């Protein structure tokens, strides 16, 4: 039986954000923007969705005179990401086993 996929992570941009953060634990907004190739507005929107779900923390500060937004994955986010990866992997495994 197929497991339900986390709707919060089943979005291309949010999954990309989490995939980056799982490896680095925290990243600046500009780093995410460069690596995800989306608009600033969309990235902000998707980050807020992840923050509302308590998958990430967002820290606002300044670097010199410029605003700095840093995102950090939470333990809840790590657990959700790992569950999502395991669930989606099961989809592929089940299909592969059906072909035999």
What does this 3D model show about the protein?
With 100 residues, the chain is α+β, with helices and mostly antiparallel strands. The protein has a domain at 27-89: Arc Repressor Mutant, subunit A, CATH 1.10.10. Helix content is 59%, strand content 19%. The protein is built from 4 helices and 3 strands. It has helices at residues 12-24, 29-36, 40-52, 75-99; strands at residues 26-28, 56-63, 66-73. It has a 3-stranded antiparallel beta sheet with strand order 1-3-2. A hairpin with a 2-residue loop joins strand 2 (56-63) and strand 3 (66-73). The longest helix has 25 residues, at 75-99. The chain is elongated and about 60 Å long.
Topology, please?
Blueprint: H1 12-24, E1 26-28, H2 29-36, H3 40-52, E2 56-63, E3 66-73, H4 75-99
Radius of gyration over alpha carbons?
16 Å
The main pleated sheet reads as: 3 strands, antiparallel
Q: What is the number of helical segments per DSSP (H or I, 4+ residues)?
A: 4
Instruction: Report the end-to-end length measured between terminal Cα atoms.
Output: 17 Å
The CATH superfamily of the domain at 27-89 is known as Winged helix-like DNA-binding domain superfamily/Winged helix DNA-binding domain
**Care to count the β-strands?**
3
Strand content: 15-25%
């Amino acid at each position: 039986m197929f497991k339900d996929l986390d709707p919060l992570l089943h979005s291309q941009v949010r999954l990309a954000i989490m995939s980056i953060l799982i490896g680095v634990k925290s990243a600046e907004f500009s780093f995410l923007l460069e690596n995800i190739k989306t608009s600033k507005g969309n990235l902000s929107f998707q980050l807020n969705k992840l923050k509302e779900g308590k998958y990430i923390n967002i820290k606002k500060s300044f670097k010199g005179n410029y605003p700095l937004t840093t995102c950090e994955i939470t333990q809840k986010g790590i657990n959700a990401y790992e569950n999502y990866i395991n669930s989606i992997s099961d989809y592929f495994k089940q299909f592969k086993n059906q072909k035999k």
